[in-house]
TrEMBL record:
Protein name in the entry: Transglutaminase-like protein
Provenance organism: Salipiger mucosus DSM 16094
Domain (Transglutaminase-like): residue spans on this chain: 158-218
InterPro entries xref list: Papain-like_cys_pep_sf, Transglutaminase-like
Length: 258
């Protein structure tokens, strides 16, 4: 499936006029970048590798406090949907370095608080069947409520409130899957079925030697989502970070079938 991406952003950046941006679709297995263009008005741009070698980040040093950005791309998503419930999980001692770090608790995903719950609720299942059950439980238990969470919201808050946006769904899935002894990481993506249109996030789980997308919001399938970046949680893959405060002036995210 081919998707078109069109991003426009305007911010006022206070203090150091620098921004770290993570918005470009990644050169990643299962997707081909047919074309892409980015313009950051007047900025000096430096590119660095993304977390776990997925995608790139952009250091943009601005000529003044105004950040004006336009990004467009066409991405051909070639990966297929996989029924993860039939996949097996690797024994911990066989995990490669790219997966082992995603077993550990992180700032927003305190997975070490959930082993007892996971054992009681999902202990009768193994591997991909356990991950699928966790995904389905999160989708059933949570309500998608814009502005229900903020930058300080952790999975402990979300587990209690049972509401949030895509970041909170991903944190819940990652925490519970890690507590089950299966590596899970946060992935930022573009998808045409995200409502309201915005940057989106899904989980990726390590099963049978590869990463597989899991979207507990139900807004996306792996054959229609373009990968941007990955990390331990939302802290690692924010679409924009600045040394000081930044004020939103205007922003639009449009992702449509080509």
């Amino acid at each position: 499936m081919q998707i078109d991406i069109d991003i426009a952003m305007q911010y006022q950046v206070f203090g150091d006029p620098t921004a770290l941006l993570t918005i470009e679709a990644a050169h990643y297995p299962g997707q081909i970048i047919q074309s892409q263009f980015i313009d950051i008005a007047g900025a000096t741009v430096t590119r660095i590798q993304g977390e776990s070698g997925v995608g790139q980040r952009i250091w943009a040093h601005l000529p003044n406090e105004n950040l004006s950005l336009r990004y467009t791309a066409r991405v051909d998503v070639t990966r297929c949907n996989t029924d993860i419930s039939y996949l097996s999980a690797a024994p911990t001692h066989t995990l490669p370095s790219e997966a082992i770090g995603y077993l550990r608790p992180s700032r927003y995903c305190q997975s070490d608080m959930f082993p007892a719950f996971v054992s009681r609720r999902f202990g009768h299942l193994e591997g991909g069947a356990r991950v699928a059950a966790i995904r389905d439980w999160v989708q059933a238990e949570m309500s998608y409520v814009p502005e229900a969470s903020g930058p300080a919201t952790t999975v402990l808050d979300t587990f209690a409130a049972r509401e949030g946006v895509c970041r909170d769904y991903v944190h819940m899935v990652c925490a519970l899957v890690r507590a089950a002894g299966i590596p899970a990481r946060y992935a930022s993506v573009y998808g045409p079925d995200v409502t309201p249109p915005d940057f989106h996030a899904v989980a990726q789980v390590w099963l049978e030697g590869d990463w597989h997308m899991v979207d507990a919001t139900g807004m996306g399938n792996s054959d229609a989502m373009a990968m941007i970046a990955v990390g331990r949680d939302a802290c690692d893959v924010a679409f924009m970070e600045t040394p000081g405060p930044a004020m939103l002036i205007a922003q639009s995210v449009r992702v449509t079938p080509a």
